[in-house]
Design brief:
about 180 residues; mainly alpha; 2 domains
Length: about 180
């Protein structure tokens, strides 16, 4: 993998999208560029896929009203300086719902989705992950065994489980689709 892709960076994937944005955007502000990237990469490849899988898994129909194409066109027509006044994210949305939703909800700190990875690894997931990754390292040359061991031994630090989780997903994907 390093020999084949070692000279590439993530920019090669984003460059055509950046050119399209530069050629077509009326407001080339950073916030509109980030919105454009999210609409083209992060939403379809990550967030919407997760919503679909999670909702279908419990027989639920999910809607994403903020992605209605007319609404997206409206939002993209607003200057970036209005969207994030005083560096406050979602400035327009927060002010639109103030009075309808409690201020303490609107103004609370952003919360991410959390998985109890550390607890899982300290239980049965840890030994199983170690076995899967050791087998993966023996069958491929994608990861250095010493690097995998380093991540697996780091279960107790804050980033160790997330890194091991990522390696595990690559190994399982490879087992399922390639091997």
């Amino acid at each position: 993998m390093l020999r084949k892709f070692g000279n590439f960076s993530s920019w090669e994937a984003v460059a055509p999208i950046r050119r399209r944005f530069q050629d077509n955007a009326w407001d080339k502000s950073h916030i509109n560029w980030m919105t454009y990237v999210d609409l083209n990469l992060r939403l379809p490849e990550l967030l919407l896929m997760r919503v679909d899988k999670m909702s279908m898994g419990v027989a639920l129909e999910a809607r994403v009203p903020f992605l209605d194409h007319k609404f997206v066109e409206l939002v993209m027509s607003i200057p970036g300086t209005v969207k994030a006044r005083h560096r406050e994210q979602k400035y327009i949305l927060k002010n639109a719902v103030r009075g309808l939703i409690l201020d303490r909800i609107i103004d609370r700190k952003k919360q991410g989705f959390w998985l109890p990875l550390r607890e899982w690894y300290l239980d049965r997931l840890g030994p199983w992950t170690r076995d899967v990754l050791q087998d993966f390292c023996k069958q491929t040359d994608f990861f250095a065994p010493s690097a995998c061991s380093h991540f697996l031994n780091g279960f107790v630090d804050t980033r160790g489980p997330v890194r091991a989780w990522s390696l595990l997903n690559v190994a399982l994907w490879w087992q399922h689709y390639i091997r």
